[in-house]
Write a structure and sequence with these properties.
The complex is a heterodimer of chains A (464) and B (233). With 464 residues, chain A is α/β, with parallel strands linked by helices. Helix content of chain A is 53%, strand content 16%. Chain B is built from twelve helices and no strands. The radius of gyration of chain B is 25 Å and the shape is flat. The chains are: A alpha/beta (464), B mainly alpha (233).
Chain lengths: 464, 233
């Protein structure tokens, strides 16, 4: 094979990869459109006043907190005001070094409760369990620091109800969030986990722990993430959910059958992507045991989270996410070759490996190759320009389809100016931002491959 | 140098993407424009008609001077009427039903039971149920056997609202057999006429096939039905 043939082959491979990557996502997009359309047809029912049926399964809300002294009281108050028939809130103070436990004790009249929990999952030592004299639904676990996964395991050990909902302490939930994500459990006894759409809260008005007005952030980093979240949730997860092949439920908000998670061994504490790892593991176990099950996604915007507003924090987040992805996929690679792998094993898993895990290598490598080949005169400027046209054009198409789904369904951004701004961002993010995040993902992959120590890092929060 | 086919393929991929993107952008603009237009019309309609509907819940039928209902506003009126109807209780509901009949909304709803749009049929089923429209019985009866779970369960609820004694014998097997019916909505169907349902459902439980029994018991538990005689027997 001559050098020219090799260059020809590589350029075809890179172009083909970009087309396949974006084509795959567009196929998910079509699945999502069908699902959203069916949901929209039932909106005539949602518009009528709703009543609880009495069949709603009781839910334990688990809220790990580490050094959340400033925000924890408001967060707990908003959780206690969720509209749902039967639920409890368990805050897990993960060895905070600030006054998290103190403010909770003062605000909610906490008193020691003689509870030991089931001990079904191993966790760092629990120092004590507190219950609220003023809010019977509230309990607080105080434990040694062990990370988010360890905190959730400690919460599961004392959870009273058959479903638990893992939420971040800084998540803002819509008042009917539990009602919406519990609905699939009510409708279908095979459902073992549901995830809800997470949106970017930056720029929105928040009062007393609830969202009052939706708006776009001014910060460009956060603005780019608004479009990213639309893509990731509205057609990424919703599309996979149609195939019962959703491998990720966001750690910010997810509802699980407690017994299923206990049987699976709880959250793994030695990974950065404990939320994804748990879902992939559950898929693998269910498939192994030939259980008829479903993992569903609820497209309604039920959870809002603060997105990073500075480059450093965003970079750390993306590096962490990529490491978590790599750890989760590697730990369960057998799902892909399992004859009973089904949708998760034969579709979602290879897709994740090819386009999410290895995507940064091919994308960064492809761009670098084309730039270098052009610089060295190995490819013509026409070929280089055509490649950029295709790669960027496909990226813009993907972002635009995310916007279309939002426009079809929820119209969360009511003003025309907001939609125009999002459309501009959908174009602009393809000229630098996406390449930058791909680069960070490549760093994450490198660090995972070289076994560099994994750390969560500290997120710079402005607060909402 | 790269072969021409590569350039052609890349340009084609880019051009197709660009073309679809432009179409999506146009679709977004059109949807946004229609949404804005519909929102303005809806708001105008609500501003004019909500006070009338609320007043109708307080006064005897015939005592209210009704504004003219434009033909184009009939569906909006039906939607608002359903919302107000679901928000009130007691005699207010009867008065609202009477108002709807005097506005011809019952005829509108019956006509829409046969329309092609699923949303339209769903809305019509709900409206006919709220209006207790006996003339819609046959059509609702056939819709309650529809394969569409949402449409059929709503039709079942409408039948129970219209005539529970006639509807329950027909629906009794379906509430346990139709696994595609949302249990929360089935509870709604039963709660419409609790006593006759209890009288029919409780004696039928021992005859429910084993695979349908969990669903039936779940329903019984949600409705807090007294199963003591069955347990004793």
């Amino acid at each position: 094979m001559s050098a020219a043939d090799l260059i020809d082959a590589v350029t075809w491979f890179v172009l083909g990869y970009f087309v396949l990557l974006n084509g795959g996502y567009l196929a998910l997009n079509l699945l999502s459109i069908g699902s959203l359309y069916r949901g929209l047809q039932q909106r005539v029912l949602d518009q009528l006043p709703q009543a609880f049926s009495g069949l709603e399964p009781a839910v334990t809300v688990l809220m790990p907190a580490f050094n959340e002294e400033v925000t924890i009281v408001n967060s707990v108050r908003s959780m206690l005001q969720l509209a749902y028939t039967e639920f409890e809130v368990i805050v897990i103070n993960d060895g905070s070094r600030d006054g998290t436990l103190r403010v909770l004790r003062e605000a909610f009249a906490l008193e020691p409760a003689p509870e030991a929990g089931t001990g079904a999952l191993c966790t760092r030592p629990v120092r004590g369990v507190w219950r609220s004299a003023s809010h019977p639904r509230l309990r607080v676990i105080d434990k040694d620091n062990g990370g988010k996964a360890d905190s959730l395991n400690a919460g599961i050990n004392v959870a009273r109800y058959g479903l638990f909902c893992a939420v971040d302490a800084d998540s803002i939930l819509s008042r009917d969030a539990l009602q919406r994500v519990a609905q699939p459990f009510l409708r279908d006894a095979r459902v073992i986990a549901t995830g809800g759409t997470v949106r970017v809260a930056n720029g929105c008005d928040v009062a007393s722990g609830f969202l009052q007005r939706v708006d776009l952030p001014r910060n460009p980093w956060a603005l780019f993430q608004v479009v990213e979240y639309l893509r990731a949730f509205l057609f990424g997860r919703l599309g996979w959910s149609q195939l019962n092949a959703m491998l990720i439920i966001s750690g910010a908000f997810g509802l699980f059958r407690t017994q299923v998670v206990l049987d699976a061994g709880g959250y793994r504490t030695d990974t950065l992507g404990e939320d994804m790892e748990l879902v992939v593991r559950i898929h693998r176990l269910m498939r192994q045991q030939r259980v008829d099950y479903r993992v569903e996604f609820v497209p309604d915007p039920v959870c809002w989270t603060e997105a990073p507003e500075d480059r450093r924090t965003l970079r750390n987040q993306r590096i962490r996410w990529q490491r978590g992805l790599a750890e989760s996929l590697l730990a369960h690679w057998r799902l892909m070759v399992n004859p009973r792998g089904g949708g998760p094993g034969w579709l979602a898993f290879p897709f994740m490996v090819a386009f999410e895990l290895l995507g940064p290598v091919v994308e960064v490598g492809g761009f670098a190759f084309m730039v270098l080949a052009f610089a060295w005169g190995l490819v013509s400027w026409e070929a280089f320009a055509a490649f950029l046209f295709a790669a960027i054009g496909l990226g813009i198409l993907l972002s635009a389809s995310g916007l279309l789904l939002e426009e079809m369904s929820f119209h969360l951004y009511p003003r025309g100016r907001q939609v125009a701004k999002l459309a501009l961002v959908a174009v602009a993010e393809n000229f630098g931002y996406r390449q930058l995040t791909t680069w960070w993902r490549l760093i994450g992959l490198w660090r995972w491959a070289t076994g560099r120590e994994a750390k969560w890092g500290r997120m710079q929060r402005k607060g909402l | 140098m790269i072969s021409d086919p590569f350039i052609r393929a890349a340009v084609l991929a880019g051009a197709v993407s660009l073309g679809i993107t432009v179409m999506l952008a146009l679709a977004i603009v059109v949807m946004r424009w229609r949404l804005a237009r519909d929102t303005v019309r809806w708001q105008r309609f609500v501003d004019r008609w909500r006070p009338t509907l609320l007043e109708a819940t307080l006064v005897e039928p015939g005592q209210l001077a009704l504004p003219v209902l434009e033909r184009a506003d009939r569906l909006r009126c039906l939607r608002l009427w359903m919302y107000v109807h679901e928000s009130v209780r007691g005699v207010g509901r009867e008065r609202l039903a009477s108002l709807a009949r005097s506005l011809g909304l019952d005829r509108t709803a019956r006509r829409r039971l046969a329309c092609r749009s699923r949303v339209g049929r769903l809305q019509a089923v709900l409206a006919c149920g709220l209006l207790r429209d006996a003339q819609a019985w046959d059509r609702l009866f056939s819709l309650s056997r529809d394969r569409d779970p949402m449409l059929s369960v709503c039709a079942a609820r409408a039948l129970v609202r219209i005539d529970p004694a006639r509807a329950i014998p027909h629906l009794l097997p379906a509430v346990t057999r139709r696994a595609d019916w949302d249990p929360a909505m089935v509870v709604g169907v039963v709660a419409e006429a609790r006593a006759p349902w209890e009288a029919a459902l409780v004696p039928a439980l021992p005859r429910v096939p084993a695979h349908e029994l969990p669903r039936a018991l779940r329903l019984a538990a949600a409705l807090k039905l007294d199963l003591t005689p069955q347990v004793q027997s």
